[in-house]
Amino acid sequence: MKLKVLTLIIAVAFLSSCEGESKKAKEVSETQVIAKKVVEVDPMKDKGIGPITSIALSEVDEVMAAEGKEVFKTKCSACHKMSKRFVGPGLAGVTERRTPEWIMNMILNPEEMVAKNPLAKKLLAEYLSPMANQNLTENEARLILEYFRTVPSK
Amino acid sequence: MKTIFKSLLAITVVSLVLSSCGNGGSKKGSQGALSSSAAEKVYVAPGEHDEFYAFVSGGFSGQLAVYGLPSGRLFKVIPVFSVDAEKAYGFNEETKPMLNTSHGFIPWDDSHHPDISQTNGEIDGRWVFINGNNTPRIAKIDLTTFETTEIIEIPNSAGNHSSSYVTENSEYVVAGTRFSVPFPQQDMPIDEYKGNFKGALSFISIDPEHGHMDIKFQIRMPGFDYDLSHPGRGDSHGWFFFTTYNTEEANSLLEVNASQNDKDFIAAINWKKIEEYVNNGGGKKMPANYAHNVYDEDTHTATSTMKKEVLVVDPSDVPGAIYFMPTPKSPHGCDVDPSGEYIVGSGKLAAELTIHSFSKMLKAIENKDFDGDAYGIPILSYEATLAGAVKQPGLGPLHTEFDGKGNAYTTFFISSEVVKWKLGTWEVIDRKPTYYSVGHLMIPGGNSRKPFGKYVLAMNKITKDRYLPTGPEVTQSAQLYDITGEKMELLLDFPTIGEPHYAAGCPADLLKPKSKKFFKLEDNKHEYAITSEADAKVVRDGNEVHIYMTMIRSHFAPDNIEGVQVGDKVYFHVTNLEQDYDVPHGVSMIGANTSELLIMPGQTETFVWEPKQVGVWPFYCTDFCSALHQEMQGYVRVSAKGSNVPITFTLDGDAVDAE
């Protein structure tokens, strides 16, 4: 009896000590699964991966948009122009092509997005420079989204 | 039989467990001096962190190295007193003022004794201080950025060796002179040393919020050599202890002439008493000239201010504040145990270690148990302060640290060993060889009320055959011992930068959470910073050209600049627009007579280029920043002096613009 208990304890110790590694293995396989599904995504339904799961939009708030433009100028404009493709994609009309959640998640969580989100992965393949994490707050990302809503595609 | 079976099974299961996880320790045999478990004790698996930081002085490299313990892995060399082309320290416009002194810009010093700031006698991990020995200075390193943020020069001092130890609430960092010199300096015959040269002990106040240093007062002591020091703690808080040698006041062939007296002194200084005297208007303001250099984290820029006055106190001004405790044979280390009761004097040439008792010292002072005086400073009777002695501990004792469990560890230079002995009984418990000629040793927190007595790090002056040879100059080294058991166990040798003198250590958890990851762009107050690519510009002002440039993965803005002329002085003011951890960019310009810049996210730095030849000259990013790092480059067109090519600057053929 004692012997069984001892073996059990050792077995538990063994399992828990290796748990970290098996978790990692799981993550890898999940990524692979996602990678296989690239084709069938509707961009206007994809919310991306990150802290933003749902956003309700009302009329454009011009004050927020103006603030968002300033944040964009400092933190983003070195790589993104509204009018044209630059280091990254041109952003005029981006809210017509992507969900608000996807846009904010791309700003707030770019490392995971370019690693796992099919649309973001496709962009990386096209532009080669991974989207930089500029460590914006959720509020700053929200302001930028509002600014984007004021710039339609031509 | 059944028991044996159980044990066998258990062993089998255990070894299965260990080997299946890949980093287990079923090593075969334990040949050689080290047991296989020594390797396990210092092994920090890839991706895992060390338990302690060790800040190891670079000696004649002038710098401070950051290692992890127990692995001995080197993480960073913090430039302090010497220029460092890798980090542009002393090369960029922002940090050049850090190395300014009353003798002008000095690109080097000899860094000795790091000490971490304390609160209530425990290490608090805010700053580490270190002394420049040659051109006397004290530096402060910020332990959120691991950068040197302040350097103060010490006037009237020379060979700033009994430095830079911190009192238990970081009230002061102390700088004591090794050489006595004319005080103030003057032109006089060297052989008139005796009685005329004086030794400065400087008490530098530390502003509790920002750590800013200011020389509160200097004590003008007799013309001895002041070798090492340590603060009192606990009951002895408020006192500071300095070893002296050359009480003979010799000025030549000191190795003979300064070894004549049977005993030199440990000077006990009641700094609280002197502080009170000074706060009440005591002391004499003397003209002086010394640099105070401060690096501002918001402007990313250092400024150097020359100070013109220092407050001097003569021992006779404050009777009862300073006493001498006779200590045999040119004592070197002056170490105070965690309780503050014992002061260990290591007579370099003595047959035994001398331990003074603080409480006996107070009693001797009260009883006026004096044995004469030196320049009016009472000499306490040797027997009156003596707590005990460690008999025949080894040859050439230098330094002592404490484990917080009642044990002391002393290095012996001549017999190359660390000796463990017991406080109170003074008996030797263990001795282990070092390889070779050990100087200082360090237990994390070993100079505080609360040591972390798990490891001792011994720092050796000589390595000879310990490593692969590298020509006549071979590395110096540190050796790590496990001190958790009754006997010490040598775990690891690792090479060091320069010559390691003292080191300071602390638990990693004290610093890790507050280590800065990047500088926020919105806090950047650099005079030439621009926080948006749209603000990039090139401005001519006479023969000066100022380029306001940004960098982000992976381009400069602007990256094509025209209108520069031979003979111009071109300032590249470069801001890294990244706002993420570990994304520095570098920049270097062909033919610039300076180093690269290595610019952290959110930071601005400046270098100067004086083009001497007409042509189109490239610059590029020096720190591999992304997959397109090799694309991160640009050109400056240099025309002849007086040319009519206008200043223009572009990116992708256009004016640099946010839209």
UniProtKB/TrEMBL annotation, chain A:
Domain Cytochrome c: 63-152
One Pfam family here: Cytochrom_C
GO molecular function: electron transfer activity; heme binding; metal ion binding
Keywords: Heme, Iron, Metal-binding
Designated name of the protein: Cytochrome c
Source organism of this protein record: Lutibacter flavus
UniProtKB/TrEMBL annotation, chain B:
InterPro entries documented for this protein: Copper_CuA, Cupredoxin, N2O_reductase_N, Nitrous_oxide_Rdtase_Sec-dep, Nos_propeller, NosZ/Cyto_c_oxidase_sub2, WD40/YVTN_repeat-like_dom_sf
Protein name stated in the entry: Nitrous oxide reductase apoprotein
Listed NCBIfam families: nitrous_NosZ_Gp (TIGR04246)
UniProt keyword list: Copper, Metal-binding
Gene Ontology CC terms: cell envelope
A GO molecular-function descriptor: copper ion binding
Classification via Pfam families: nos_propeller
PROSITE patterns: COX2, PROKAR_LIPOPROTEIN
Compartment(s): Cell envelope
Chief subcellular location: other
Domain of life: Bacteria
